[in-house]
Amino acid sequence: MPHDHSLILTLVGGFVLAFVLGMVAHRLRLSPLVGYLLAGVAVGPFTPGWVADVSLAGQLAEIGVILLMFGVGLHFSPADLLKVRRIAVPGALVQIAVATALGWGTGRLLGFSNGEAALFGLTLSVASTVVLLRAIEERKALKTEAGQTAVGWLIVEDLVMVVALVLVPLMALSQAGGTAGGLVLSIGGTLLQITVFIAFMMIVGARVLPWLLVRIAHTKSRELFTLGVLAIALGIAYLAYAVFGASFALGAFVAGVVLSSSPLGQNAAERSLPLRDAFAVLFFVSVGMLFDPNVLVERPLAVLAVVMIIVVGKSAAALAITSLFKVEKRSSLMIAASLAQIGEFSFILAGVGVSVGIMARDTHDLVLAGALISILANPFLFRLADRLSRPRQDPPTDAPAAAFAPAQG
């Protein structure tokens, strides 16, 4: 009896190649994300050789997005954000505005519509959580003022992107035409449904979900606890989509936020981490599968403009705002270097833009090219920041005289 092995082949090809290329990237002192994305390129339809099932990869990636957003919610800490709000909140908002404006201007020069150019700029404005945290942890700077400021900055960016995920489908409605009254009703209805969902989760979910976790924990079964956490993440994501008209990603994020404040929130984060990591890898592989490497050859100037916005534009905005708040030079340079890349939220936002018809596939390729190159360049930017932050040592001009000075005492 013949069997369809496309799911198994997609999983095997994705995981094996991601592991091999992720190890190579790690040995080269690069982020493993580079390896995962290149693994997707290798099994994608734009490169020779075996091609994975793109439709299956897309569904696996959707699970990856849900679990990624659930993890973002679990690690969301209002207390951490409040500690550094004086710099992180205005800094993140200014940097997002600068990067979005630069991306919009570049997009208009490239012939994009206003909506596509605005979304293009927004995708270039948010840094990768994975890359940023890994770079800061490598320097043992997570508990320092600079590290906490960078993490707080990232939390604000993530919150803005969560709002953007709600607004992008509404942008598609506005571009589709229709009467102004109908458009206002559609937008108002969507926002009302999302507001009802968030209120429902904060009132009912905040009582039921922690209680449910405690009941599951009393079984003293590690497997049931892990399964319960994943069932909550996926179930709430589907509830948000099917009942309240919100996205899977928003539902998972809100579920994570609700659980993060419960006594077992840390345990939930730890139990779900292995599966979150596994599906996150598949998410990055699926993103790589959608990338056409020919854009590097066919549109080199456009790719260069994207990289300059990410690396130079975002860094300059971060340096300006940290200098304005009189942050010390070393911390300012580290924050700027850590934010000079884009990653998973950019991919999610660009994917939503393509799915609702705002962003063209070629524009999506530009975002992916900018992400790959900026992640590749990030370790070198940190080394440059380290070098620039070292205090300058003037040569001892009076060394010869000191050598012949009479001894004291």
Order of helices and strands: HHHHHHHHHHHHHHHHHH
**Oligomeric description of these chains:** single chain
Query: Given the structure, what is the number of helices?
Result: 18
Mean pLDDT: 83
Give an overview of the whole structure.
With 409 residues, the chain is mostly helical. It has one domain (6-388): Na+/H+ antiporter like fold, CATH 1.20.1530.20. 78% of the residues lie in helices and 0% in strands. It is built from 18 helices and no strands.
Short description:
78% of the residues lie in helices and 0% in strands.
Descriptive key words:
single chain; 409 residues; mainly alpha; Na+/H+ antiporter like fold; 18 helices; 78% helix; globular; disordered C terminus
Secondary structure layout:
Layout: H1 6-27, H2 32-43, H3 54-74, H4 78-83, H5 85-109, H6 114-123, H7 129-138, H8 145-175, H9 180-217, H10 222-242, H11 248-260, H12 265-289, H13 295-298, H14 300-324, H15 329-338, H16 344-355, H17 361-389, H18 399-403
